[in-house]
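Q: Given only this backbone (253 positions), what sequence would you predict?
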């Protein structure tokens, strides 16, 4: 019985003792479960955060090299080479570690592989060589490093394109200049009788067109359709490029 003038206790205090114990036990179990779930989450996160090295240990050593190259993992590349990976191992596309890092513009990793003896002329399945990949991407420093190691400037891929046609079409003027310095003929004729000048003209690469013209490229040459570099640029509506070619053609006549 509650004494007069004294406020009754809360409902919790009026509960039977056994019920209060049961509630406390349940809360204790819930807290334990939450802690266990938190611990599991931490352990799972740690497992996924393990270095690639631990996850890759089960791979063949050549595969570890290619995985490291794809991840642009310098220490991983060095480790795979130390473990005996074949430097010119290739993935399912026929790409070597060298081609992979070149395509990602990692001159530092390219130099590591070159110093380890990577074959600078080994192509992928599509015929693309490291130099072609560097030319297409405009990677001047890598192109120079490859040329210093004897990269073939005249190699052709399955599309019958080579380093200078890739560089010209992409407008990488500095790479075009380096290739010319290394003996590429500015008037060499490639598939469909196209020259590097025509490739540059067809994509409106005016500065590259100027560089090729200054190196002696002949604007009057025609492809297998009878079109000159001017015709190609004009049809593609590259006005400035066409103007430069027209001016040079007129001056040389």
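A: Predicted residues:
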């Amino acid at each position: 019985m509650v004494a007069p003038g004294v406020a009754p206790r809360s409902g919790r205090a009026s509960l039977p003792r056994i019920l209060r114990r049961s509630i406390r036990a349940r809360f204790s179990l819930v807290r334990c479960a939450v802690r266990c779930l938190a611990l599991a989450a931490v352990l799972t996160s740690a497992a996924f955060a393990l270095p690639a090295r631990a996850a890759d240990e089960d791979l063949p050593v050549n595969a570890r090299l290619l995985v490291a190259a794809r991840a642009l993992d310098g220490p991983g590349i060095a480790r795979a080479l130390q473990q005996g990976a074949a430097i010119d191992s290739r993935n399912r596309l026929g790409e070597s570690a060298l081609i992979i890092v070149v395509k990602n513009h990692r001159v530092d990793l390219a130099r590591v592989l070159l110093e380890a003896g990577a074959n600078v002329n080994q192509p992928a399945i599509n015929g693309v060589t490291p130099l072609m990949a560097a030319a297409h991407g405009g990677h001047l420093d890598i192109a120079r490093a490859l040329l210093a190691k004897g990269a073939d400037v005249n190699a052709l891929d399955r599309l019958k394109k080579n380093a200078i046609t890739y560089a010209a079409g992409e407008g990488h003027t500095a790479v075009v200049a380096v290739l010319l310095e290394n003996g590429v003929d500015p008037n060499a004729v490639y598939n469909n009788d196209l020259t590097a000048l025509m490739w540059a003209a067809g994509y409106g690469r005016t500065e590259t067109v100027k560089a090729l013209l200054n190196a002696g490229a002949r604007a009057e040459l025609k492809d297998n359709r009878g079109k000159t570099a001017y015709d190609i640029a004009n049809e593609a509506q590259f006005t400035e490029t066409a103007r430069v070619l027209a001016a040079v053609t007129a001056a040389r006549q």
